[in-house]
């Protein structure tokens, strides 16, 4: 039984939620480095209460939003009435990139953010590096989603 087809309300609702989850998951990756640079310039440090809040936001909001990105995206593939299929190259690339993103966020970025919040200066540079990795993965995902290689 098909739940929805491309262009239906159900499909568009999943598309809306997919894009919303992307914004929630990735906006901090672009905003936090700017804020961090501003705070350092002003002589304010990220460690302490602010760093702990940023870490908790990443752990409780941004990481789970990244998980929802895949849930809604895969749901759209399943609901597309065979317009999009899991066997298509672009879907496989998207899944690979998503797994890499999840690995970076949960395996590298969150632990580094926790250490940076505790005042570890080396961890601060790792947060920047892992954030840069996420920027590259995000760009690759956008290219994959827009041009859909193999579709």
Describe the structure in brief.
With 151 residues, the protein is mainly alpha-helical. The chain has one domain (9-147).
Strand and helix order: HHHH
Q: Mind summarizing the main beta sheet?
A: none
Low-pLDDT runs of 5+ residues are none
Find the count of extended strands (DSSP E, 2+ residues). 0
Structural class: mainly alpha
Rg from C-alpha positions? Answer: 18 Å
Shape: elongated
Overall structural domain count: 1
Write up what this structure looks like.
The chain is mainly α and 151 residues long. The protein has four helices and no strands. The chain has one domain (9-147). Helix content is 80%, strand content 0%. Helix 3 (89-117) runs antiparallel to helix 4. The radius of gyration is 18 Å and the shape is elongated.
Key traits:
151 residues; mainly alpha; 4 helices; 0% strand
Secondary-structure map with pairings?
Layout: H1 9-42, H2 49-79, H3 89-117, H4 121-147
Helix pairs in contact: 1-2, 1-4, 2-3, 3-4
